[in-house]
Amino acid sequence: MEAPAVGPSAAAELQQLLIDTETLTQFLTEVAQYAATTLGPGLFCGITLRRDGSPFTVAGSDPTATNLDEVQYGHHDGPCLTAMRTGEVVTITDLTTEDRWGAYRVDALAHGIGSVLSLPLLISPGVYGALNLYSRQPGIFTAEQRARAEGFAGEATRALHLAWRLADQVELTHHLETALTSRGIIDQALGIIMSQNRCTADEAFDVLRAASSHRNTKLRDVAHDLITRVSGKSPEPSTRFHS
Fold first, then answer.
1. Range in 108-117, 167-176, 226-235 the model is least confident about
2. 160 and 178 part of one domain
3. For labelling, which of 92, 106, 123, 188 has a CA lying 20 to 30 Å from the CA of 177?
4. Does residue 1 lie within any of the structural domains?
5. SS3 letters for the chain?
6. What is the pTM of this model?
7. Are the C-beta atoms of residues 11 and 19 closer than 8 Å to each other?
8. How far apart, in whole angstroms, are the C-alpha atoms of residue 152 and residue 137?
9. How does pLDDT run across 98-131, given as a tens digit for each residue?
10. Rounded to whole angstroms, how far apart are CA atoms 123 and 131?
């Protein structure tokens, strides 16, 4: 059975996966499963990322791929980690005759693996990855298969870069919403202080800040407690922008 060619259809499929999936983890899992079925018969695919120095498996087409990725972390070496470290494609044509990564080789053979192909992925500055393909058959990663896999890895890198940026944007949006909610609660507390003390907004803020400092409590929490004490219920957060 010959694997289908990887071309524009792969790019379109990856873009569709990005649209259809709701989380980065779900997208990565779909990419791993798509790679395993697209790049050759009987393949397992794992995706490893490294951020802040530590590698971790983020997705696998099945548990076999995940286990094989994690075996390398235990030995601190292997084709996947080498591909990430050097930025070069690593091929193991036949594990039975491979003389690199001795400890990893023994474990991979114990899992019934015959050949390995690891392709580096540069997801984002400071975020590196590898697309790892495993087969129980030795010699399956021919020059043609490697070229097909490298083409797919290039498309996957572009899609993963966009997915990572979107995930960062979601996190940024969450932080913004949290900040706006805090601002809304503080504004409500300032209104209460101004009403009770017949003072200006600046003077009310000084009162709130002094209470925060005295109690060694965040300004938002002091404001929350004040509103709850006066109204008898927790404040309704406002996320409106204030000029």
1. 167-176
2. no
3. 123
4. no
5. CCCCCCCHHHHHHHHHHHHHCCCHHHHHHHHHHHHHHHCCCCEEEEEEEEECCEEEEEEECCHHHHHHHHHHHHHCCCHHHHHHHHCCCEEECCCCCCCCCHHHHHHHHHCCCCEEEEEEEEEECCEEEEEEEEECCCCCCCHHHHHHHHHHHHHHHHHHHHHHHHHHHHHHHHHHHHHHHHHHHHHHHHHHHHHHHCCCHHHHHHHHHHHHHHHCCCHHHHHHHHHHHHHCCCCCCCCCCCC
6. 0.66
7. no
8. 21
9. 999 988 899 899 889 999 999 999 887 778 889 9
10. 11
Residue of 47, 42, 44 whose CA lies nearest to 14: 47
User: Which of 127, 149, 170 delimits the end of a domain?
Assistant: 170
One domain, residues 20 and 100: yes
What six digits make up the tokens of 101? 């990564």
